[in-house]
Request: fold
Amino acid sequence: MTTLRTSRSGRAGQYVALLGYLVFLGFPFLWLISTAFKPPRELGSLHPTWIPNDPTLDNFRQAFDEQPLLRAAGNSLIAALSAALIAVVIATPMAYAMARNRNRLSAAATGWVVVSQAFPFVLVIIPLFLILKNLHLINTLFGLIMVYVVWSLPFALWMLVGYVRAVPRELEEAASVDGAGKLRTLVSVTAPLLAPGIVATALFAFITAWNEFFFALVLLKTPEKQTLPVVLTHFLGAEGVADLGPLAAAAFLATIPSLVIFAIIQKRITGGMLTGAVKS
Reply:
């Protein structure tokens, strides 16, 4: 009886902790939505409310009138999708080779991948700028995409190595016994089981590039090339005073693509994991 009570109290504690974590994560987003629909009078109120008393769409109209949000969102979408695709194409075969050929070299490469994530942006921005300048890639989306690929590749590689190692070797050996060649085995057996990991890695690379600000600020000079995170800073005045309503509206719109893509893909990730578990 005591064990049952302890188990129930422990489970209740887990639910309370999970609820607190969800509130912690959801509070900024809910407050952002609330702010986006508040008129200027309520934004300056000394007694803010969760739900706007007089909701308005003027903040969204003003945001689109003041800044080229659609053009910036298009630039961000091109950069994020391209970086995610290229990173996954490069990382997948590399991860397979590292996972299936375990030796000192692959262990050192894995360690370097983890250590490289600790490098701050400021440490690499000057040599990176000089390299891109010599290649005439400053102020180009292609140059920014290459930076995003290089920056997201280590973690993408680290993620995919774990997924590859989770695929049993016995499946590949069985396909080989049945007469399948190496390429056929990779395409027909290994790749379907890696699909959830590839999709999750691509999603990570996309969100990283979509939200990135520092590289885009330094490397893109003309307004026509700037990405959405950079354009959002234009809602800040010269003295650091924010145009809060339009800024909240634009920031809310900027979060929608990531949420939509995740909502579409997460079912496929779960379904692919379940399929892989049944096959194995």
The chain is about 80% helix and 0% strand. Residues 181 and 187 are 10 Å apart (CA to CA). The chain has a mean pLDDT of 81. The two ends are 39 Å apart (CA to CA).
